[in-house]
Design brief:
The chain is an alpha+beta fold.
Length: about 170
């Protein structure tokens, strides 16, 4: 079994700890933007949303977390197509409710679009599971957007194998 390589880093943003990961796509920025904002494109690799984004919130439903995952309200803090999306959500984590900030920034150069994804991590210990989880989902996105099969990306290859990569302090 080949274990995927963890690529994320830990850093401080806005005075809070964040996990930050990048992925690159040989695609125009508008295409990658669609992959992270259009419900039918999201469905291929992570989940779907419903509602009217013009209202400032949508209901997001994870599709690959098992039947027990309930929809979460995503508050759209910033939306600057096709370059930036920032979202806040409150979601269950283990036995508590946690507020997460998510940031997606896109930049295109020479036909390659780079997605930089960041998520706040209120407790640094959460990085041990959240980091591998996002590595998994972002690799599913790469598969979906490059003509591969996201179903071939197996969560058990990521967690707990990548947890050690996310140990330690967050850097300013």
């Amino acid at each position: 079994m080949i274990i995927p390589t963890a690529t994320g880093r830990k850093e401080m943003r806005h005075g809070r700890p964040y996990l930050v990961m990048t992925r690159q796509f040989r695609a125009p920025i508008e295409d990658v933007w669609a992959a992270v904002t259009e419900s039918d494109r999201l469905a291929r690799w992570i989940g779907t949303w419903s509602g009217d984004p013009a209202d400032g919130t949508v209901q997001f439903q994870m599709r690959y977390e098992g039947d027990e995952a309930s929809a979460e309200e995503f508050v759209i803090d910033e939306c600057e197509p096709p370059a930036r999306l920032a979202i806040t959500t409150e979601a269950p984590y283990e036995e508590e409710s946690v507020t997460w900030q998510l940031e997606l920034d896109l930049a295109e150069s020479d036909g390659v679009t780079t997605l930089t994804f960041a998520q706040s991590v209120p407790d640094p210990a959460m990085a041990l599971s959240v980091g591998p989880g996002w590595e998994y989902y972002l690799d599913r996105m790469v598969a979906a957007e490059s003509g591969g099969d996201p179903a071939e990306i197996v969560f058990d290859d990521y967690y707990p194998a990548q947890s050690g990569h996310y140990e330690g302090e967050f850097t300013p």
